[in-house]
Amino acid sequence: MRFTCIKNLDAGLGIGVKVGDIIDFKQRGKEYVANDFVVGQIIIDEYFKEGIIMKSNDELEALTEKWGAARKITVNSNIPAQVIKFGEEMGELFIAETKDEIIDAIGEMTVVLVMIANLRGISISTCRKINQTLSFVTKHHGHNRLLLLPAAYGQLCVAVSRNDNNSIPEIIANIIDVLEEVAVIGGINLNECWNHAYNEIKDRKGTLFENGVFIKE
């Protein structure tokens, strides 16, 4: 039985498994055995998903960028339009009632952030390096994590309205920081959400034309 790790497993348990690792388990009664460790159903349910090959963030970024270019989003769209799209997806997160809806919203927001970054001429991975020393969430320790999202989004809107392209990379990094924290609060992680979103969009066909209209094939 092949499982994909969706959440880093505490090294204190003597198991070095990280997000994206693929583990072949053999079920033995109520236990799952793989190489040198044995886990129960509770660990399987929380840390693994059966049969889903999770891609790394770097892989997802490359694939999402390729998809955006193929659909002409990063050719015919613009940053203000994608910022509005991000706001729509953020609204979906705030009304989400189930775990699946949270995964959908965070994943879609991450895809839109990739489009915004590409239109700015940078990558998400480049943006993420900005906050390596002190993250946006850490800077605002004690604040409601979920409410930090519209705060960071507000920064993005202001920067775009002022044509302040120099501030956009750091703001994208701030938003990623918050999305990662919000995902954890929801019992998931950003990588899982991004994988889900990419699997949803990868087979969508169509083209975004210069007039801003997306025509499905």
Characterize the structure shown.
With 217 residues, the chain is an alpha+beta fold. It folds into two domains: 2-50, no CATH class; 57-216, no CATH class. Helices cover 55% and strands 12% of the residues. It has ten helices and eight strands. It has helices at 41-47, 57-70, 73-76, 79-94, 99-120, 124-128, 136-139, 145-161, 168-185, 190-201; strands spanning 2-5, 22-24, 26-28, 31-34, 37-40, 48-50, 206-208, 214-216. It has a three-stranded antiparallel sheet with strand order 2-1-6. A hairpin with a 2-residue loop joins strand 4 and strand 5 (37-40). Helix 2 (57-70) crosses helix 5 and helix 5 packs across helix 10 (190-201). The longest helix has 22 residues, at 99-120. The mean pLDDT is 87.
List keywords for this structure.
alpha+beta; 12% strand; globular; 217 residues; 2 domains; single chain
Average the pLDDT over all residues and give the rounded result.
87
Shape: globular
Low-confidence segments, given as residue ranges, are none
The proportion of residues forming helix, as a percent range, comes to 40-55%
Distance between the termini: 37 Å
Question: Topology, please?
Answer:
Blueprint: E1 2-5, E2 22-24, E3 26-28, E4 31-34, E5 37-40, H1 41-47, E6 48-50, H2 57-70, H3 73-76, H4 79-94, H5 99-120, H6 124-128, H7 136-139, H8 145-161, H9 168-185, H10 190-201, E7 206-208, E8 214-216
Helix pairs in contact: 2-5, 2-10, 4-5, 4-8, 5-9, 5-10, 8-9
